[in-house]
Structure formats: structure tokens, C-alpha cells
């Protein structure tokens, strides 16, 4: 059942974002920034954590979950190190995810021979 909930929630988030992309003139990069900021805001007001516990990977894998992870890291960094935690906390919380994305993207580029769009 957990897999089904994660699939439906993650798919729902992606479907809403796709509808938003199709019906607005916003560029994809700006929509991605909106999603990260929305995750941080929802985490700050305490709404995202219970939702993420219920939805599992369906809520933590999309960019909204990345924004929430950044918020949690910054919050923990401030608690531990004060003002300098504002700068260090987000990097500490998201380093593994960003590193994994870079490593897997590099490995995929070795396997699939990427080409530039023309």
C-alpha cells in the first residue's frame, strides 16, 4: 500500500506541475524554483512533514521535497551553529542527494552517448 500511495502522490504532484507548465507562460526553471520555495515554505509552517510521513517517497523525491529538505537542514544548522548554520545547513542536508544526481547523470552519459540538441 505504501508504494501505491507514493506513486499516486508523486504522480499527482507531477501532473499538477505539468498542467501548470502547459497553461502558463512561466519557464521551466522558474517553475522549479517555485516548487523548491513552496517546499521550504510548507516545511516552515509545519505542513510538509506530516504529509511526507504519510506519502513517503511520493512527497520527498519531487522538488517540493528538496525544498523541505533544505529548510530542515538550515533549521538544524541554525540550532547547532547559529548564524553560520544558515549557509552550511542546506549544503549538509542536501549533499548526498546532489552528489547522487551528479554521479548517476555522469554514468548515464557514459552509457547512452548524449548529443546536443540542434
UniProtKB/TrEMBL annotation:
Keywords: Membrane, Transmembrane, Transmembrane helix
Entry keyword Transmembrane helix: yes
InterPro entries, A to Z: Spore_V_AE, SpoVA
Transmembrane segments: 6-24, 31-48, 91-112
Pfam families: SpoVAC_SpoVAEB
Highest taxon, organism lineage: Bacteria
Protein name: Stage V sporulation protein AE
Organism encoding this protein: Anaerocolumna aminovalerica
